[in-house]
Amino acid sequence: MKQKAIIKDIIERARAARLSIAELCRRAEIDPGTFQNWRNDRCGANLRSIERIYEVLDQVDREDARRLAKRGKQAA
Question: Model's pTM, two decimal places?
Answer without folding.
Answer: 0.86
